[in-house]
Amino acid sequence: MEIIVYLSGEIHSDWRDQIKKGAKENNLSIRFVSAVTDHEASDSAGDVLGENPNVFWRDHQSAKINRIRTKIAIEESDLVVICFGDKYKQWNAAFDAGYCAALDKPYITLHDEKTIHPLKEVDAAAMAWAKTPMQVVEILKYVTKA
Predict the structure, then answer these.
(1) Cα gap 48→80, rounded to integer Å
(2) Is the pLDDT higher at 107 or at 1?
(3) Any idea where the domains of the chain sit in the sequence?
(4) Domain 3-44+74-144: top CATH class
(5) Under 8 Å CB-to-CB from 12, ≥6 apart: which residues?
C-alpha cells in the first residue's frame, strides 16, 4: 500500500532525512512531502507580494503563503509526522497538529521526554508518540506492510 506522509516540524536537525532513509532501506512505498525547510525562503515567502518594512505584516504575508502549501499537503496526506525540537518553540508544528486533529487526520508526534508536559494535549490527539526517527520508520513499516 502506498501512502503520502507529510513531515512537519522543526527544521534544524536531520530527522526528515533519517525517516526518508529508513523508509528507502525498508522499501516502503511512501511519498514524502514537507513544508519549505529553508528558513530564509519560508520567512520571505510573502515578499513576492511586495516588501513590507513592518515585521508583523511581513511575517503575516509569509505565513499565509506558507499556509497554502501546508494546508494542501496536510489535506492530501494519509499520515502526518510532526517533530518538535527542544531548541526552538515550533508554534507552526503545534498548529499543524491542531489542524490534523480537526480533520481527524492521523498524526505521529516526534519529540524527546523533555517536552512531554508542554505537548500533552498535542500528544493526546496523536495516534503515536515516537522519541526517535527510527521509531517512526518502524511505525511506517507496520502501517504500509500487507
Answers:
(1) 29
(2) 107
(3) 3-44+74-144
(4) alpha beta
(5) 85, 87, 88
